[in-house]
């Protein structure tokens, strides 16, 4: 498995207390229905879904619970896919593009309902989003995109430049207003899901690193660096952007992003505290926290060298703060937190979720793009459906063979 330094700096979520998730050392061979490799948000959603359905689950992580990419997330839980619907249509066709967008919308609603049902304290708050004009979509492009979304059965309101200024105080070339997104604290959500899984019998071992995955016709044996072997009927790889060798390497790439968070300043926040993101490449994206901080990220670049990436934190934080000040002049954009992290991208902006080619008992959950948490929910639904013998009708949209 390729090992990466996934997060550097101090993410804002570290300022808030998340419940501890107990783990134990792996000292002997163990077995279960399903082994989930990775204790971040993706693994937590999969484990919660499977344990709720009655499957016995083992989880391992080479670091520990919620210590990989999850704390670096800015946690804008959007159903809006990175690729505009009109652009995605040119990649995969209108029917599939509309289906992917609708499934993303459904996943956000399902996640909201599930968090409420489980009573997980993670700051779950509904938020509208504003996609503001940028170098990818001008006013005319935004109007066409909004029309495409409405044709797919999704609510999308185009705001003219005048309406955008009047309602939100933003001077841009129009925007698309969309309801139904979610703000969460990603560490609290992941920890809460892991604890619910443990209440149902999930066993969490850490630090425990998978070193070899040997898949057979009926089961999978996973060797670990600490010695014991884990036997499971199925394995789910929820390792974020650290790819085991068994996962196909084509079709995806690693990118770096940078983010800042300001001091609390609720008096200066914009109406409805809507998520805001640009129709640009790279795009700026921002949200508020429960205590009134502004979290803002962007300046994405292709991942190449972790040392070089980390050396850019100060410069990138300064650039993001200046862009944020230009967009929102009423804010104090001085960073109190600044960090960098890695995330994955695909050509279409869609995740890769499903059984691995030639390894039918091994699933990979690669929730790539800016919708990682939304895609993690989709992954939990797809994996559960597959194991239950009733394949998900949208599984082919996200599988490794498209």
What structural category arises from helix and sheet content?
A: alpha+beta
Question: Main beta sheet: strand number and arrangement?
Answer: 10 strands, mixed
Order of helices and strands: EEHEEHHEHEHEHEEEEEEEEHHEEEHH
Radius of gyration: 21 Å
Overall outline: globular
Low-confidence residue ranges: none
Number of strands: 18
Determine the fraction of residues in helical runs and give it as a percent range. Answer: 25-40%
Proportion of strand residues: 25-35%
Determine the N-to-C terminus distance.
25 Å
How many helices does DSSP assign? 10
In round numbers, the mean pLDDT is 92
Task: Write up what this structure looks like.
The protein is of the alpha+beta class. It has helices spanning 41-52, 85-92, 94-118, 139-151, 161-168, 186-199, 306-311, 313-327, 372-387, 395-398; strands at residues 7-9, 30-37, 57-60, 76-77, 125-132, 157-159, 175-183, 203-205, 210-215, 220-224, 229-237, 252-261, 275-278, 285-288, 294-302, 337-346, 352-356, 359-366. The strands form 2 sheets. Strands 1, 4, 5, 6, 7, 12, 13, 14, 15 and 16 form a 10-stranded mixed beta sheet that branches. Strands 2, 3, 8, 9, 10, 11, 17 and 18 form an 8-stranded mixed beta sheet that branches. Helix 1 (41-52) runs parallel beside helix 9. The radius of gyration is 21 Å and the shape is globular. The model has no long low-confidence stretch (mean pLDDT 92).
Summarize the structure.
The chain has 402 residues and is of the alpha+beta class. It has helices at residues 41-52, 85-92, 94-118, 139-151, 161-168, 186-199, 306-311, 313-327, 372-387, 395-398, and strands spanning 7-9, 30-37, 57-60, 76-77, 125-132, 157-159, 175-183, 203-205, 210-215, 220-224, 229-237, 252-261, 275-278, 285-288, 294-302, 337-346, 352-356, 359-366.
